[in-house]
Amino acid sequence: MGIKRIAVLTSGGDCSGMNAAIRAVVRAALAEGLEVVGVQKGYHGLIDNHFQPLDTRSVSNMLQRGGTFLQSARCREMYEEPGQQLAAENLAALGVQGLVVIGGDGSLRGALALTRRGMPVIGIPASIDNDIPFTDMSLGVDTALNNIIYAVDCLKDTASSHDRAFVVETMGRNCGYLAVAAAIASGAEVTLLPEAPYDIAEVCSHLRRRFDEGRSNSIIMVAEGAGNGQKIAEQIKDAIGFETRVMILGHYQRGGSPSAFDRILAARFGVGAVEALLAGERGKMLGLAAGGLKLTPLEQVIEAGKRPIDQIMLSLSQVLGI
Ligand code: F6P
């Protein structure tokens, strides 16, 4: 029996480009004569039966909007057997023969659980952290980076007007990709990541030397998981006496209109997911590899854990931070 109806959901932390990906899934599916059902609030909607039919009208004017109109959630029940079972049963009762899950690591774990219960699932990696393995870029990363560099460009104007150091804290609980990429793109002097141990005394003497050379303002880019931005700013101020201010970028990074890169990536992932389901693929995640799309079994993605930090990026940020 061929596929007649598919469902799509967004799960975990939202990111920009999710709406564009839903749109691509819906349009690609409709073009193939399939029906599409949207699941509201991620896996919560699967467990509580919150569905809505999606047609071209549902996704019109969505391409450029940040967030996700289906809404998203982190769903604890989906980590447990009963929740997973109920979600699979509800999907089957709805007559769905394929599911597209757009989200991060936890969302892909849920996708694997549903695959093991017989539901064909294709995952689309979406998380500003860029911590998902087997894809060079996840959806939302590029937009978040652009948000960060816009903020840092603004900070540099005021930092240079006052001879100040600014500690900028990016998101990334366990992963420093955003911080290191933003550091390179915005010209930060120091980059602190959860993956790379650092000595605050060395950071301070580096800043001291720069100030002694007459370079009187600095940006210290700190990934959320590498330490508390406020505390690091106080340590710098106490050690070398510079006026130091803090900018915790927080959820600002996740919103806004998606960049051209994220819109195009969303289009490729969304259409790719529908094509994969129609080709009989199941239990796999789409990824961007060497410019092309690649499918990787979800087991492999989950087993691999977090994507390691790119050492070349790290050394670039250090070389350029002198
Ligand atoms: O995983 C994405 C992310 O934005 C992390 O960078 C951050 O630590 C976390 O989500 C914040 O989660 P919440 O939106 O639940 O506060």
UniProtKB/TrEMBL annotation:
Allosterically activated by ADP and other diphosphonucleosides, and allosterically inhibited by phosphoenolpyruvate. Its main location: cytoplasm. Transmembrane segments: none annotated. The keyword Metal-binding applies. NCBIfam families: PFKA_ATP, PRK03202.1. Belongs to the phosphofructokinase type A (PFKA) family. ATP-dependent PFK group I subfamily. Prokaryotic clade 'B1' sub-subfamily. Catalyzes the phosphorylation of D-fructose 6-phosphate to fructose 1,6-bisphosphate by ATP, the first committing step of glycolysis. This is ATP-dependent 6-phosphofructokinase. The lineage of its organism: Bacteria, Pseudomonadati, Thermodesulfobacteriota, Desulfuromonadia, Desulfuromonadales. The gene is pfkA.
